[in-house]
Amino acid sequence: MRKAIFITGGGSGIGRATAQLFAARDWFVGVADVDAAGMAGTMALLPAGQASMHRMDVTDRGQWASALSDFVMVSGGRLDVLFNNAGIGSGGPLAQTDFAELDRVVAINFMGVLNGARIGHAYLAKTPGSCLLNTASASAIYGSSGLATYSATKFAVRALTEALDGEWFGDGIKVRAIVPSFIETPLLNASPVGSNETIRDRVTAAGLELTPVDQVAEAAWAAVHGETIHTYVGKTAHRMAVAARWLPGKLRKMGRRGVTRKTPA
């Protein structure tokens, strides 16, 4: 029987590329997103009859329950992989960020993942050899200055992945995370709070690489089929993983780069 994967954030970027790769390898694909136009664009790239579309907001538990119920009805009752991929980019000084923006980032980037894990567990447990796959970030390796809330949510995703890998072992469910650095996706077009520059501008100015999204999709495939809990994607992510272990002081200094200590009046 054809295996099945349900992908949040499937309307663009990593989600779209992963949907294309798994469909090309004869999986049935559920494309989920809050963006209907984006989902339609992804569906147009997939083989007819091999995918379903589910408009949903990952912060809404009722929509999660309905979407997964609808998906397994058309997938032959299978949920081999639940890919918690939906997320948003947000940056800027924490002290200048609106509380509404803080709530939005936490709700989508972490609570959305937690909702998917909690509601998806029952379906994953019924599918032998299933996997919960989460999208973390290189910002989950060492906290990124200027991305405090985003980093915190991705640290939480990383911790959840590790915790559930142990907790769900007895249910026969693997739990994995991909940990990408800067990926060529629309998220790079966002501007941090208080800045006229985009994230893409800052990454380019810093001389850091942008990893093609198809490499992330291949990493997602490897993570689902491998035994490594965290799969790092991109040179920056690999370098940060090494530095976090052996050179944490260097990362700490990098986080302070360009910051002038204020003298009390």
Structure description:
The protein has 265 residues and is α/β, with parallel strands linked by helices. It has a single domain (4-255), classed as NAD(P)-binding Rossmann-like Domain (Rossmann fold). It is 46% helix and 14% strand. The chain has nine helices and seven strands. The chain has helices at 13-24, 36-43, 61-74, 99-125, 148-167, 199-205, 213-225, 235-246, 248-255, and strands at 4-8, 28-33, 51-55, 81-84, 131-135, 174-180, 230-233. A seven-stranded parallel sheet has the order 3-2-1-4-5-6-7, sandwiched between helices. α2 links the parallel β2 and β3. The radius of gyration is 18 Å and the shape is globular. The mean pLDDT is 87.
What is the strand tally? 7
Using only C-alpha atoms, the radius of gyration works out to 18 Å
Percentage beta strand: 5-15%
Which secondary-structure class do the elements indicate?
Answer: alpha/beta
Helices, by number, come to 9
How much helix is in the residues? 40-55%
Unreliably modeled segments: none
Form type: globular
CATH topology: Rossmann fold
Domain count: the total is: 1
- How is the quaternary structure best described? single chain
CATH 4th-level superfamily: NAD(P)-binding Rossmann-like Domain
Annotated CATH architecture: 3-Layer(aba) Sandwich
Q: What is this structure's SSE topology?
A:
Layout: E1 4-8, H1 13-24, E2 28-33, H2 36-43, E3 51-55, H3 61-74, E4 81-84, H4 99-125, E5 131-135, H5 148-167, E6 174-180, H6 199-205, H7 213-225, E7 230-233, H8 235-246, H9 248-255
GO molecular function: oxidoreductase activity
Keywords: Oxidoreductase
Family: Belongs to the short-chain dehydrogenases/reductases (SDR) family.
